[in-house]
């Protein structure tokens, strides 16, 4: 149908090298989300200056659907953005268009809930596909590449946005996640640390619905979300078992630190992305 769907119901920085002693941690389920809960021990922080270009400047989330004929152009744009090392582009397929004739094979109701939470925080209740959220703050149509580039530049100027260095690395059978302290002079934020299991490229042959007969490649598809822990402005470090992240079809991981919480998501404070193979 080629239409836009809308639901209305409803910089030089400081790098931190952190070493921590950990107590035992365990995986628990919280309201349909997997949660990685670990105790932090005493942390030692060593700072050194490095170029800001080493850190990503934006997290771009696309809420998309295989059942939406307006989405393929936005899906292609996410593929283009995914090739830019300064941008962490993520596809989060939603499930509320499944009734249109094709059940989205990548959809997750948690992404629909996340999109709705963003709209409630903004107060506009605008929930549609393809919708892009840039750095947790600005939303726009996902096929508007010029608008996305502009939103990346404008949100990059907002104090506190993407200023916290985040590091992630595979170490044996674990993924090490380190989040630095809030930069000097910035308010101490309260946020959460999440890790995403990612499939870099997933081709889907769509047999029914508005995109019948098309094959669409979805890029940086989030396949699972795990809460790593809470962040209060101080440096922290966690270890996540690789077996909780890497399953069949998973070849990358993304970590983001976001102001607020799952139900009230705010600005992106920092993020990292790494390949697993």
Automatic annotation (TrEMBL):
Q: Which SUPFAM superfamilies match?
A: Thioredoxin-like
Q: Where is the signal peptide?
A: none
Where does this protein have coiled-coil stretches? none
**A Pfam family:** DUF1223
Recorded hits in PANTHER family, A to Z, give:
LIPOPROTEIN LIPID ATTACHMENT SITE-LIKE PROTEIN, PUTATIVE (DUF1223)-RELATED, PTHR36057
What's the protein called, per UniProt? DUF1223 domain-containing protein
Native organism:
Rhodopseudomonas palustris (strain HaA2)
